[in-house]
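Q&A FORM
Asked by: J.P.
Topic: structure of Polysaccharide lyase family 1 protein

PROVIDED:
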Amino acid sequence: MSHISRRALLTGAAATAVTAATATTASARTTRPPTATDSANNPRHTVTTTNPVWAAPFHTADGFAGTNTLGQNGTTGGAGGPVVTVRDTETFLDYCDRNEPYVIQVDGIMQFSSKQALRSNKTVIGLPGAEIRGGGLDMYRRQNVIIRNLRFTGADDDAISVQQSSHHIWIDHCDFSGGADGLIDIVRGADFITVSWNHFHHHSKTALLGHSDSNASQDTGKLRVTFHHNYFDGTAQRHPRVRFGEPIHVYNNYFRDNALYGVASTMNAGVLVEANHFENVPHPIYSGYDASGPGRVVERDNVYVNSGTPQTLGTVVEPRTYYAYTPDNPSTLPSTIPAGVGVGPI
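REPLIED BY: S.T.
REPLY: Here is the structure written out as tokens.
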């Protein structure tokens, strides 16, 4: 059996991802986490049966997060669990660290340090003005998580870390800037992830897939990630930088004023860079970077405006062996992407 046909056996139809449940809504208004003794009669934690304060419309996780693989029917997050609205950091982190499914609506600024745990079967979605400030969210051996409509600023480590075989994660319509390290790191065997419609700005190291050149055994054939309709707005590098994973699908993104490079495929990774718009990017695509050896990379149907010549090497497994998609015309992206990315548009 060929390399491609083996991968094709894993193909599944995209599954639905919902960002609000029709279950009971819990509105957390306390300055401490609710406990098992809280009830509808406890003013510190009021349980209501009203509709959520705000919820995004029905959407589908596409790309790798939408595939029916590893026993997961796409990425549904906290669908079916209670919808909770959190207004202080302690309560927010408490719900993120619970084992049960929840749709967590974030109302206000959650300020903390370091990376904090986000467990499986969660949807974390921001209400207007919601922000994660100073810290980040960490998924360690987790699955089925949706993060949407949140602003991440000033993280003292990674803003979002997906690691240790976590899978089926959807990061959509967020705004990332000003962190100390990576904005999104996907490492150590993480798999089946989609990063879509996000605005990345005022930062250098944007997105890393594969944390080191020595981790071939854990990452080879994993790190299957789709990046689509993101705005890499003046960020310097890693859009993404990839080691070992295949296929990584980078399509319909808008790259603008990226001083160091756009995409880097290294250490025998397999990356398809398709139907993107590169503007003022001196090195749009690299095969190999710094001390990391070359990776395979195929480019097709991209637009290059005042940009350098892309490097390509070898062949890459087609993402269509996993999911169906129809790219937008890349010439339209400078108009459609800035208008649609980040918080709010959903």
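FOLLOW-UP: Residues 89-96 form the longest helix (8 residues).
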